[in-house]
Amino acid sequence: MRKIIKSIISRKNLRLLLLIAAAFLIFYTVKYIIKKESAACIGVILPITGDDKDIGETLLKALELFRKETNAKMKLGKEIRFIIRDEYEDPVKARQEAEKMVNNKKVVGVIGYFYSKNLEKVADIYEKGCLPLVTLSASEKIVAGNNWIFSMVGRDTEQGFMMAVYLKEIMKKNNVTLINEKNIYGEGLLGAFEKKALRIGLKINKNISLDMTSDSISDIIVRNFSNLENLKTEAVALFTTNKKNAIEIIKLLRKNNFEGPIFVPGSFHAGRTANELGFQEEDALMKNVFVTSHFVSELANSKVVQLFDSLIQKYGIVPYRDTPFCYAAAELFSHAIQNGAYTRNEIKRYFDSIKYEHPLNLITGFSYFDKDGFKNNDVYVLMAIDGWLKPTFIQLKKQREPLPGANNVITVDGTNYFVVDIVYVGLDFFRINDINTKDMNFDMELFLWYKWMGKDIDISEIEIVNGIFGITDKTTLIQKDMSKPVKYACYRVKGTFLKPFDLSEFPFDSQSLPIIIAHRTKDWNKLMLVMDKKHKQLAIEHIYPREWQYLGRKDVSQICEYNSSFGVPDYRKDNEGGNYFSAIEANILLKRLPVNYVLTIFVPLFIIIAIAIILFFVPIDRFDTRLSTAMTALLSLVVFQMSTRNPLPHVGYLLKSDISFFIGYILIFTTIINIVILHVIFRNSEKRARIVNIIFCLIFVVFTLVTYSLLTFF
């Protein structure tokens, strides 16, 4: 033993070991340097300090999440790095940070600027420096005049246009008073509203400009709204930069007895619940308040929901309204790099090529830029309902190109709009009667209700898409009220529903049971479904068979795409075509209780493997006994697996239980080989055979424990 140790630590071998260690160190150092130097550097300028640092932190966490996911997959061929700087309000500091980004030749693009007033100070620097900037600002005055700036949130003027059109065409209002904050954002919205109102015949009674730093705001509101009869205004359009200013003015308006509709822009949409928005659920001040926004979480797709869940679980932060747009900006750069755009000019050319005919499918949906660099975002109108901001029952969606057979289109000032009905859908799950993983379906009973306003809506045409209709399915009407403007109907539904279960982790798997609801004939240009979240689902107590634990519920909006032309002669497949249907998906989250399977599958499996271990302690000269016992164990394992596999479906992948049996086959087969080898060695040297037997026994036991531990816990 000493000779062996001495030979290992001899000077010659020691030098060789040190040389190998040095080679590994140099290799990984060079690899790290190359990786760092070849990384795609993207600048990020967002609020890190000041009053809006919480918003900046949320957006930065979303970008960090994107960076980790993208670099882990290595789908770009190079890593993404973010160079983060603060979005200063001070003009001097703001220009210094922008110049640093432009002068850093490694930076191929920038994501940033939450406020238009901050972007306005530095926009010229990016144009002169030829550095692509993807911003969260929506000022048309800034973005449209700069070829190197692209906006992810759509034009602010579109919100002004939508307010005017919605008031005139949907609410049938004729007189409106305008209140704007004196800054580039407020004045941009004001100008857009005034232009549209003039062209569509919406009368502006009065235009009030406010300096939010002044102490006379209350006096101005009182003076202008003290005599509502003389004012003769039916609505107010309020153009402010943030929700704090908007809430202050709304309170003053309500205090002066103005009860009409008040429209505020997306800057108000910094939160969604009453607490986040700065009012109580029972407060009357938010009644008849409407918000225009480029994003509505109720209509967000499953990718957005997954992003929000990840941010909450990993960082414990509540996502902000513009979080998906910030994440989509990072996706935009990754698409450019993936398509071979590595320089500033190449990335700009790639952004310029993203048009209506060839949109990108980002987290925010189908996306493209118009001629001025604005992303195509529809403007939604929201209202305060039950302490939440939710879509109104009628939405207007701009029609990009004429669609044949579209009978829900109105033309306003030369622009075509789809009149889209919103139907609120609510579900409460009552009982899960059966979860049939072999046939890939489940039987469930639930309460399903609808709320809507549209005259042409037939709720009987709204169906559960993944339903498997059979003889035991039943739908019973419980309540119905058609007398009020908001109509209501509630049903009790019993049915069987399709679910392609992923059993790769069986029996340590978790499953979701989805109920997907969509309209049979009306696409997303005619009708959109929104989940009614007023009532919270209680835990489901009755789940059969009794091998599942209820974890919770997750609801998402999504788009159902039917892979069919429907036989339409002039059919085209694009982001406005008629093969996309609005849908909602309610998921029950369950976890399998594995105790029964551990006792009925893994304990017998381990007993069979334990028999193989016991064979190491049987005398080596008992060759026939050892071999016959090992063969019996192998055959027992084969028969046992066949019996346990019968209740499970035939799938094209291995289950965790299958892997457990496969490892068992390897262990017993190697035991058989060991028995034969030891028999040969034993003929020549009994002592050597015993040593080999002990070594193999130790390796066998350690390998078995480690392998099954990893398989169980990972």
Structure description:
With 714 residues, the chain is an alpha/beta fold. It is built from 20 helices and 26 strands. Helix 7 (140-143) links the parallel strand 4 (133-135) and strand 5 (149-151). Helix 3 (53-73) crosses helix 14 and helix 18 (623-645) runs antiparallel to helix 19. The longest helix is centred in the C-terminal third of the chain and has 29 residues, at 656-684. The two termini are 39 Å apart.
In short:
This protein is of the alpha/beta class. The chain is 40% helix and 25% strand.
The CATH class assignment of the largest domain is: Mainly Beta
What quaternary form is this?
A: single chain
Q: Which structural class is indicated by helix and strand composition?
A: alpha/beta
Helix count, DSSP H or I runs of 4 or more residues: 20
Give the helix proportion (percent range).
25-40%
Stretches where pLDDT is under 50 for at least 5 consecutive residues are 4-8
Any idea what the radius of gyration is? Answer: 33 Å
Key structural traits:
Rossmann fold, 26 strands, 714 residues, eight-stranded mixed sheet, alpha/beta, 5 domains, seven-stranded mixed sheet
Topology summary:
Layout: H1 2-8, H2 11-37, E1 40-46, H3 53-73, E2 80-86, H4 91-103, E3 107-112, H5 116-119, H6 123-129, E4 133-135, H7 140-143, E5 149-151, H8 156-170, E6 175-181, H9 184-200, E7 203-210, H10 217-225, H11 228-231, E8 235-239, H12 243-255, E9 262-264, H13 274-277, E10 289-293, H14 302-315, H15 323-338, H16 344-352, E11 360-362, E12 365-367, E13 380-385, E14 388-391, E15 394-398, E16 409-412, E17 415-436, E18 441-452, E19 462-464, E20 467-468, E21 474-481, E22 487-498, E23 510-519, E24 527-531, E25 548-561, E26 580-592, H17 595-614, H18 623-645, H19 656-684, H20 686-713
Parallel strand pairs: 1-2, 1-3, 3-4, 4-5, 6-7, 6-8, 8-9, 9-10, 17-24
Antiparallel strand pairs: 10-13, 11-12, 13-14, 15-17, 16-17, 17-18, 18-22, 19-23, 20-22, 21-22, 23-26, 25-26
